[in-house]
Amino acid sequence: MKDALELGDHEVCLAHSGPEGLATARVFRPDVVVCDIGLPGMDGYEVARAIRADPAQRGTKLVALTGYASPEDRQRARDAGFDRHLGKPPDLDALLQMLDELVRAEASR
Questions:
Q1: Does residue 89 have a cis bond before it (omega within 30 degrees)?
Q2: Domain spans, the chain
Q3: Cα(45)–Cα(30) distance, integer angstroms
Q4: What per-residue confidence (pLDDT) applies to 106?
């Protein structure tokens, strides 16, 4: 997925755990974070809440990319601060379109 996103002109940084992802987001300051829910160290919900609690990152858009896709899971993601929810495996075109929409929406603010 990283390679495909980079081909779509997105700059990508990877993290393999919740704490690593949070630290990477604090340094990298991305427009959009695509975050799995089932992460080691701290789950994606905790990552989302931590990003939302950081005033410097409040404008960051959050996309939950997860196999947890029941209506309750979607609501839990919204409650944690995610802007969008995408089930696994993602349709690459849908993901690229979603990222473009989120970046355009932020740019128009």
A1: yes
A2: 2-102
A3: 18
A4: 74
